[in-house]
Write a structure and sequence with these properties.
By secondary structure, the chain is α/β, with parallel strands linked by helices. The chain has a domain of 131 residues: Carbamate kinase (3-Layer(aba) Sandwich). The chain is built from nine helices and 16 strands. It has an eight-stranded mixed beta sheet, sandwiched between helices. A four-stranded mixed beta sheet has the order 6-7-10-9. A two-stranded antiparallel sheet has the order 3-4. Strand 3 and strand 4 form a beta hairpin. It starts with 8 loop residues before the first strand and ends with a strand.
Length: 257
């Protein structure tokens, strides 16, 4: 992969997709054709759930967030920073991409703080600060950082962070040209039809009405926050939509202020 003046793309891979070998292979093929600096952030919630179930570690959700106690956070880090991260890195390298896997803990990349909620979420955090210099140096070397959404605070306490939030934080810190949320759906729907563009006021209304729900909410909100933070374009799409976008055809949802 070669750097050029096109600007940085931060791309978030959905957790549902990274568990599919065929998808990861196809994505790696697309990534190998990108002629711009690229940073990848990935999820892995389904894989975490499977291992927690296998180990018979009980867990609960609160408003879509997994309550993460001490036993659970060890599994979270094992799955995200180990199995899933290395699966993606390995496939990218096999496709000729200079991929380097790291977590938000490595080199102090993402300093986190505990996420406060109505209930104690345990080791669930949110990004507080990004060591953007590390990312810039890796990009200058022609590397593609592949980041798992695990961070720590100033005392070394580890936190599981929503991957959408990490992607937004990295994109803002880098002043990225594009932030792409790559999912298993082609974009955001208004109930019947896919939206090719989505403005902030419309997004708020659709969230309030329950039309935008579940895992799409943090993507939309993170996208709007990224735009406010200086990111130029935010896209929600699937792999086919990303390929179309790279060819100059918009079949995805482009979020605007």
């Amino acid at each position: 992969m070669k750097k050029d003046s096109a600007g940085v793309m931060v791309l978030k891979l959905g957790g549902a997709e990274v568990g599919k070998p065929d998808f990861v292979a196809s994505f790696a093929g697309v990534a190998s054709t990108l002629n711009r600096p690229l940073v990848i952030v990935h999820g892995g919630g389904k894989q975490i759930g499977k291992l927690l179930d296998k180990l018979k570690i009980k867990y609960e959700f609160h408003q879509g967030l997994r309550i993460t106690d001490e036993p659970a956070v060890e599994v979270v880090e094992m799955v995200l920073s180990g199995v899933v991260n290395k699966r993606i890195v390995g496939r990218l390298v096999a496709s000729g991409v200079k991929a380097l896997g790291l977590s938000g803990r490595d080199l102090g990349l993402v300093r986190a703080r505990k996420l406060e909620a109505e209930v104690d979420l345990g080791h669930v955090g949110e990004p507080e600060e990004v060591n953007v210099g590390i990312l810039c140096k890796l990009l200058e070397l022609g590397c593609v950082p592949v980041v798992s959404p695990v961070g720590q605070d100033t005392e070394g306490v580890v936190f599981n962070i929503n991957a959408d939030h990490v992607a937004r934080a990295l994109a803002v810190a880098l002043g990225a040209e594009e932030l792409v949320f790559l999912s298993n759906v082609p974009g955001v729907f208004d109930g019947e039809h896919q939206l090719t563009t989505l403005k902030g006021e419309t997004a708020a209304r659709l969230i309030e009405l329950g039309v935008i729900e579940g895992g799409m909410i943090p993507k939309v909100r993170s996208g709007l926050e990224a735009l406010e933070g200086g990111v130029q374009k935010v896209l929600i799409t699937d792999l086919e939509g990303l390929e179309d976008y790279l060819k100059g055809k918009l079949t995805a949802t482009l979020i605007s202020r």
